[in-house]
Records
---
Amino acid sequence: MTKLWAGRTEAETAQLADDFNSSIAFDSRMYKEDITGSMAHAAMLGAKGIISQAEADTLITGLETILDDLRNGALQIDPKAEDIHMFVEQVLTARLGDVGKKLHTARSRNDQVALDFRLYLRGEIDELAELTKKLATVITDKAEQYKDAIMPGYTHLQRAQPVTFGHQLMAYAFMLLRDLDRLMDCRRRLNLSPIGCCALAGTTYDTDREMEARALGFDGIVLNSIDGVSDRDFAAELCAALSIEMMHLSRLSEELILWSSWEFQFIELPDAYTTGSSIMPQKKNPDMAELVRGKTGRVYGDLMGILTVLKGLPLAYNKDMQEDKEGVFDACDTAKMCLSVMAGMLPGMKARIDKMRKAASEGFINATDLADYLVTKGLPFRSAYKISGALVGKCIKEGKTLDTLSLEEYQQAEKLIEADVYEHIDLDTCVQKRASAGGTSVSSVEKQIDSVRRSLGQYHGEND
Ligand code: ARG
């Protein structure tokens, strides 16, 4: 096929070079954006009298028909085409003749690809935001269901202080809320139009970039044409936001894996989202959570990929930049899948409240509360801490817990201790007393749930 750019060179390019050069295998997924971008461009060319209004209308109808044909399968993407931009223009010219050749006036593939990529990623961000919102809602609902289920809270993976399962889950809801915020922030910076930057220096034609930007739903235009065709920071930023979001999903996955293990037995994952072993009949494997944890690595890889492609490039466009897409697409696809699977799995997760409570009552996680009790009796915290520690040591030696020590044993250690100690170190008291802002008490967790629901309610995505 004759190249649209043939002219400068005489000899045909080698087949191997053509194959190597081609990006149609992955940029064809931007066909819709490429065509709607071209329609806006044709409309602007017509409105500004750069081509006649009749020609603009012909181009727009031709592009619309190509879009329909691609959607309903009447037209197939040619895998031999160089890229999606060339493919659309070639089909258009084949169908319309000379008018088709006017579409590329006052633009270049450099601003065209930057436009397509921004439009495509904007759509991805809207889907990702919707899914993030969905998952945050699912987690918040679960937190409400278990707002008074007591479990051990951990530091260093050692039982530390009693918390509620609802409190622990709400930590993830807040993380997802920030992930949503990061996506919207990225969208805001991305949503400027590069079309009209042309090859790099702008154009001699009297174009109206603002008009094209408005038609395509942008908030404005990229003000430096070299910047417009050179940078892909919006794609790197999206990968960074997704890497952070995947890191959150991965930590949640890790906890789901631990909690569903025989050692913890804190939760049961729904059958629909677990697998069995081909050899060990007793097993119920948390494969979905493990895959989310595993896929986090590839999203980090995608971020490194785009940063590395860009880091040494002189301005403006370089063909290296064709390598900007696959990794970013992969990051979006992967994150969308992981968010969907998590949101599908978590509603069916059941907490084993009895096991959680038992673990909480065995780990001396009320030792801080015993120390706090001694402080209320007048001891300085450091001395109280020492006495509480010594009593824990005694319990471990004698196979007891703090609530099974007798009052005599308590008073031998510290005579200020009275019978009201038992109420102070009771698990429910320990939780209810942590009513400080953000703390684990039921009323505090209820406030957290309200706050997240309010924030989620304020966010309205493009698809709402
Ligand atoms: N397929 C190319 C890409 O993805 C489109 C831009 C080509 N521009 C050029 N000057 N060769 O980057």
Note: Residues 23, 27, 83, 109-110, 113, 317, 319, 321-322 surround arginine (CB under 6 Å).
---
Amino acid sequence: MKKYQSYIGGKWIDSLSKETIPVDDPATGKILGEMACAKKEDVDLAIEAASKAFKSRILVDMHPLERVKLMRKIAEELRKVSKEAGKLLCYENGKPLAGAEYEFVDAANYFDYYGGLTDKLEGKTIPVNKGVIDYTVLEPYGVSAHIIPWNYPISMLGRSLACSFATGNSTIVKTPEQTPLAAASFFAQALEKAGIPKGTINIICGYGDEAGSYLTHHKDVAQITFTGSVPTGKKILHAAAERAIPTVIELGGKSAAIVYPDADLDKVVETAKGAIFGHAGQICSAMSRAVVHKSVKNELLEKLSKLSKSLKVGAGYEGGELTPVISEKQLQKVENYSRSGTQAGAEAITGGKRVDRPGYFFEATVFDKVKQDMTIANEEIFGPVLSVIEYQDPEEAIKIANDSDYGLAAGVFTKNLNQATEASNKLEVGQVYVNSWFTGSIATPFGGYKRSGFSREKGQEALKSYLQVKNIGIQL
Ligand code: NAI
Ligand code: MG
């Protein structure tokens, strides 16, 4: 059994208690390896290392062009290992192999992108009284704590880490207990090979309510970044509120695609394949609701049903298209939601139960006759389950799409550009996709409205979350 260690202060170490977390393959349930389980004393070590690195000003005082080079080097090292590392990630996470490999490329892209901005963090001079020079400088907060979810453990890690590193913070990453292996090994090794100053980045894993909670409550943590569920997000906000420190919060969604009568239905179906059945629907911005015009609903349902039955069920490493959910617990959660849908009067036209094979597979499921007051129309299921809601007039469609506590993403399918822009203006979400889904790149701001959070990650927008502004006034 391979053991994986914490990466603290430039060293790989066991947890002081020697306790480990077993990590399994969601496609079989077999144990893949053991991860060092960080407890309070291990979190303390990581915080000590990060604080020491930050106080030494090694990143802040580094010539900006040197920081650019260092970040480009990290990107290069991550790209080099993407094949091998992607394989390990594929085993622990369950997603298709190409997607797992791409997470390392994606993380590399973030280091390239923010590396290109790290020498362009400029303050301004502000005209005040005669005889006064007034200027601003942008400074990092200090020790930045990142709590990472299991669905995109390497992409998410790269996304927030590249930003906090580019801005000169020292970072502690708490990886998810379900998928910590590729981060602890390949990712940390890439950082080490690139030659990051010791302690500027530390990667630990532990249980959320233990290591995660202790880390986010720690007095020496100056900023927190969190992506995950609403209940945990609220706990993080409480922890931050106790010490009045800033947070980046991204909390998932219940995103609706509006399908107008003139929509290209094949395009909708092709999009749904990735947007709700890809990675078994475990995506914060998944297309989990389809708000469909009455006149095209039956035709669309037929096509969706065909799609869901055509998907090859299997592990990511065996070319599966419908891959497993992350754990038995998650599978039961999806089952319970599905059952609640049926009990409330919705009809699973396809799918609706776990797949009869080892591992944590759930059938690609499409619910018809979903009404707004049903749980499956409101809560984030995080499984391959699409809820179809019928509408008759365009205003009603917008109303249904907006009738959610969440506001992460929404999509519109139509050939009418006026209709698309009008709907885009009215939708209460952080991103709108037109005739597509997940459209955007690392350069486009991403985040939620309403209960989906309030921060923006990706793009230049994200840098603001890791910087504070200091004003300096000089009386001549
Ligand atoms: P979670 O939100 O509890 O876990 C996400 C991360 O937070 C993990 O690293 C976990 O260890 C950490 N964490 C948990 N409790 C913590 C605490 N008290 N203090 C600090 N850190 C803590 O999500 P979980 O339990 O893995 O999944 C439950 C549901 O959350 C899923 O079914 C899904 O609906 C949602 N979820 C949404 C994600 C998104 O991208 N929006 C990602 C992961 C989960
Ligand atoms: Mg597992």
Note: Residues 147-151, 174, 176-177, 208-209, 212-213, 216, 227-229, 232, 235-236, 251-252, 284, 330, 333, 380, 382 surround NAI (ligand 1) (CB under 6 Å).
